[in-house]
Amino acid sequence: MSKKIPEIPSASLADIAFMLLIFFLVTTTMDVDSGLRRKLPQWVDPKDMPDEDQQINERNVFVVLVNKNNDLLVEGDYERIENLRERAKEFMDNPFNDQDLPEKEPKEIPYFGEFMVSKGVISLRNDLDTKYGTYLAVQNELVAAINELRDELAKNKFGKPYKELEADKQNAIREIYPQKISEAEPKGKI
Amino acid sequence: MSKFRKNDGKELPPISTASLPDIVFMLLFFFMVSTTMREVTYKVRMHLPAATELDKLEKKSLVSYIYIGEPLPMYQKTFGKAPRIQLDDVFADVGDVQDFIIAERNARDENEQPMMITSLKIDENTKMGIVNDVKQELRKSAALNINYSARKKAD
Q1: CB–CB of A110/A97 below 8 Å?
Q2: Chain B, 34-73: which have a CB under 8 Å from a chain A CB?
Q3: What ipTM score was computed for the predicted complex, to two decimals?
Q4: Nearest in space to B57 (alpha carbons), one of A92, A72, A31, A74
């Protein structure tokens, strides 16, 4: 009766924990997956595809072509990728209602009332031999242009960057600057 | 003066190691929570392009991955040097993409299916031809949410 159960030694606890720790240290990969988020258009059967060229007014389309040598052709002339963002911003914004830049139509938008929303669409076309790296860089610049426009508008109107706004305010801004980047079916040669 | 007398007679007591397991456990839990196990072995070489407008992929369970790139040197004898598609652990053709997406979709809960994202991990030197083929297949199988995987550009 007087015999006590001996205490379990806890000296090895640290060793066991260390072993587990080292296992997790080795297997861990800390990198978070991140990337450019895009939405593909719905699949349309080639047979009942409408003739897009006739539907959209020429001034409303910002044409970006990338050829197999990874050169850029923006609205008919060569352009360096560094300038693409500015060009796209100017196109989507059209601050002086230029005749060559896209039309605007009034639209009722929460928080803003009636707002002139641009009808501009960015059309991106690439060659089959274009490098993916270039293609993604172009996409990145176009998305960046729209993000910058949204950010500027958010700062003017609400005094906060776009990312920090509430969901319904973000929606309002998204309606003004939608991410309209259309990717036509690639042709073999451009 | 006697206040600052050296305690030369006494020995320094040993530092208690009783708290060592606690510290180690704390580290252990940190790594257990932050860890993500690598789910596949890469068979293609991928050097992701750099971009600035990145979104994080938040719900890992809703993401399915498609890898495209040059096969690693040990596979080049059988598969050649041209960029190939890897789905899960195997090399695949463009035609297999639809089946892969359908299988991935069936593995998820029904109300989660619309939120599924396909992450495209593509080497930056790949030609757009194969990428376009994959994109068309994704459109056909109505997997429209995609994410072009990229590194953060240092600037």
Answers
A1: no
A2: 34-38, 49, 51-57, 60, 63
A3: 0.75
A4: A31
Domain boundaries, chain A: 56-183
- List chain A pLDDT tens, one digit each, 190 residues: 567 888 877 778 778 888 888 888 887 766 667 888 888 888 877 776 655 555 567 788 888 888 888 888 888 888 888 899 998 888 888 888 877 788 888 888 888 888 888 888 888 888 888 999 999 999 999 999 999 999 998 998 888 888 888 888 888 888 888 888 887 666 544 4
Identify from B64, B122, B127 which residue to disrupt to test chain A contact, counting A C-beta atoms within 10 A and taking the largest count: B127
Residues in chain A: 190
A114 pairs with which residues across the strands? A108
Chain B residue numbers touching A33 (CB-CB < 8 A): 56-57, 60, 63, 119, 147, 149
Contact between A13 and B56 using a beta-carbon 8 Å cutoff: no
DSSP state of A24: H
